[in-house]
Amino acid sequence: MANGTDGTRRNAATGESYLPRQEPRYREIASFLRAPLADTLDELDIALVGIPFDGGVSNRPGTRHGPREIRNQSSMMRSLHHVTRLDPFATARIADIGDVQFSSIYDLEQVSNDIAAYYSAIRRAGVIPLSAGGDHSITYPILRGLAADGPVGLIHIDAHTDTWDEFQGSKFHHGGPFRLACEHGLIDPKRTVQIGIRGTQNTTQGWDYSAASGMRVMFMEEVDALGIEATVAEARRVVGSGPVYLSFDIDSIDPAFAPGTGTPEVGGLTSLQALQLVRGFRGLPLIGADVVEVSPPFDPSGNTALLGATIMYELLCLIAEQVGSKEG
């Protein structure tokens, strides 16, 4: 791990040590949540990863710029959580390990293989990944890398089920990662919950597949009627106590709060509801998590990326608390 394992950095000119996370927020190299940078998985509990890829989008591109802008906006994050009073950086060893490298970015199958190999290495090192996309197609190869010991539970927060079949001659697209994950035995559909689903479609294909496979689909109208607390309770009932992966698509949030995404759908979660929803999953045994579909070109204000960074911080707190409880 570069510099100090506690996140300190040594000034190249003076040799003095300092903590970049405590510097004014306009200073230092932008990293996820102001975490230290690392070029190795050694001595890490949690790896923050960027996947700058949007070759799986069906319409509006731009999410390849998501990781960089989330890094920029996450300089607004502080370390101490105002509700739980948890400082994830005091609880776990965390670093930004950079972006997934692609050997052939125009070859969708090879991109999937590159991502899967990258996350397999993270899993073998005993490190938990927290990722920023990128479009939602990246979650399928992430699961390929992490679910080597059998199917896992899934909490999927999104406006869309992402269980479509082939599109324009390819199955590797952002509308189908969870169909692929189900077909290849990476997720247990009966331990899968999809929260916030809404929006018009030309066909019921995705909704039908989710329901037929046994996934619990919670349309936004049900979430609104139940409230966040009851939605969390239902989701926890579905996934049970086994290993679970959490995937958060920023388009689950209403475009009034998050317009910078490829497929915005009105009538979604508020930013506060989204934070409360994620916090409700404290204590679940997460094997990893991601925030996807932040598309900075569609939101020059940077607010969508800021919201993505905030969700990423909430997820980091969940994972860090989990790591701390094991070590304790």
From TrEMBL:
Enzyme class per UniProt: hydrolase
Pfam family, one: Arginase
Positions annotated to bind Mn(2+): H136, D158, H160, D162, D249, D251
The enzyme's E.C. designation: 3.5.3.11
Entry's cofactor comment: Binds 2 manganese ions per subunit.
SUPFAM superfamilies: Arginase/deacetylase
Region of interest (Disordered), residue spans: 1-20
Gene3D superfamilies: Ureohydrolase domain
Alphabetical list of PROSITE patterns matching this protein: ARGINASE_1, ARGINASE_2
GO molecular function annotation: agmatinase activity; metal ion binding
GO biological process, one term: putrescine biosynthetic process from arginine, via agmatine
CDD domains: Agmatinase_PAH
Keyword set, alphabetical order: Hydrolase, Manganese, Metal-binding
Signal peptide: none
KW Metal-binding (keyword) present: yes
Cofactor(s) for this UniProt protein: Mn(2+)
Record-stated family: Belongs to the arginase family. Agmatinase subfamily.
The protein's name: Agmatinase
Gene source species: Vreelandella glaciei
